[in-house]
Amino acid sequence: MSHSSARGHLDQCSRCGHRAISFFSCRNRHCPKCQTNARNKWLAARSDELIGVSYFHVVFTLPHELSALAIQNKRAIYDLLFRASAATLLEVAADPKHLGAEIGFLSDKTCKRIPTCTASFQPAVFRQTARAGFIRSTPSCWPVKVLSRVFRGKFVAGLKCLYRRKKLGVHGNLIHLSQSRSFRAFLRKLFRQDWVVYAKPPFGGPEYVLQYLARYTHRVAISNHRLLALADGKVTFRWKDHAHGNKKRKMTITTDEFLRRFLLHVLPRGFVRIRYFGFLSARWRREFVPVCRQLLAEVHRPRSRSQTVTQPSLATWPCPCCGGAMLIIEKLTAEQIRLRSQEWKNLIDSS
């Protein structure tokens, strides 16, 4: 998680004179330290598109039985997860029995860690859905049972298509799925169980859901402040035990196991993890969002000061000693950072 091989700058507090070294962003979307500015720009842009209609937070989760297949076929399975869940929402929303309206939504793919923090993982896709079909009566919530069944049917049909086109790789303990009979039996097992779909209005409004999604859109796995120690080939980190009142606990595992768990969250190169559908898609967003506001007789809300992305300034971050503004006084090469880190033992990574 270190940026020690990157360039950076020397900062000094304008109030107490405290000095520290900061690293430039590596701009890797999987880095647990960087991407703050990119996340803020994304959050401001999405907040600017909110309209005065009902919003829902919808989560589609794949069964645990698909975890191993997803690990071996990340690009194919994750892409199918996006397409199947999006098609499910659009189809159910267009049905007059349920909503009878056109919707717009954004999607973000994540790997949902199970509460015990074990090696298992479940791919899931998070969606914020705006229902803007201007009709007289609308259901108070999404029919999750219908969503679950439609999603299951579309995803299994997609798996069959990928298998026929030989787009699925099966290795190791999944090698038996290379036989058609075994793969059909595997699909039947998936079809016999209920798939989990969560859909509820956000308690804090759509802004709260955007803030929640922003935690995942430009970072993955674990943040640096949760890493406690690296010694004797083992990593100690802090985790939250949701099964026992969200108590904060410590866990120590080998570096190999830590890297293995971290890499479960790394997406294939070039994979688009945030996607937009319906009237919020890139093709229709600029045209339909103003139309929605006009039909709702809604005055466009300007961005609040907290939502506006501030322009870069000399002040980089607050001083850890007195809270004053840390100012850049010198830019450093990687070699200079290495020498300065030996000079100052309290090297701080604030990138």
Q: How would you characterize this protein structure?
A:
The structure is a single chain. The chain is built from 9 helices and 12 strands. The chain is α+β, with helices and mostly antiparallel strands and 351 residues long. It folds into 3 domains: 1-32 and 313-351, no CATH class; 51-221 and 271-300, no CATH class; 223-263, no CATH class. The strands form 3 sheets. Strands 6-3-5-4-10 form a 5-stranded antiparallel beta sheet, sandwiched between helices. Strands 2-1-12-11 form a 4-stranded antiparallel beta sheet, with helices on one face. A 3-stranded antiparallel beta sheet has the order 7-8-9. Strand 4 and strand 5 form a beta hairpin. The radius of gyration is 23 Å and the shape is globular. Mean pLDDT is 79; it is low at 112-121, 131-139 and 304-313.
Q: Which short descriptors sum up this protein?
A:
351 residues, alpha+beta, 3 domains, five-stranded antiparallel beta sheet, four-stranded antiparallel beta sheet, 24% strand, globular
Care to give the gist of this entry?
With 351 residues, the protein is of the alpha+beta class. It has helices at 36-47, 67-72, 74-94, 144-164, 180-191, 206-217, 255-263, 285-295, 334-343; strands spanning 8-13, 19-23, 54-61, 103-113, 121-131, 197-200, 227-231, 234-241, 247-254, 274-278, 315-318, 325-332.
How far apart the termini lie comes to 12 Å
Most strands sheet: 5 strands, antiparallel
Q: Class by helix and strand content?
A: alpha+beta
Q: What would you report as the Rg, rounded to the nearest angstrom? A: 23 Å
Number of strands: 12
Number of domains: 3
Strand content: 15-25%
Coarse shape: globular
| Helical run tally | 9
Mean pLDDT: 79
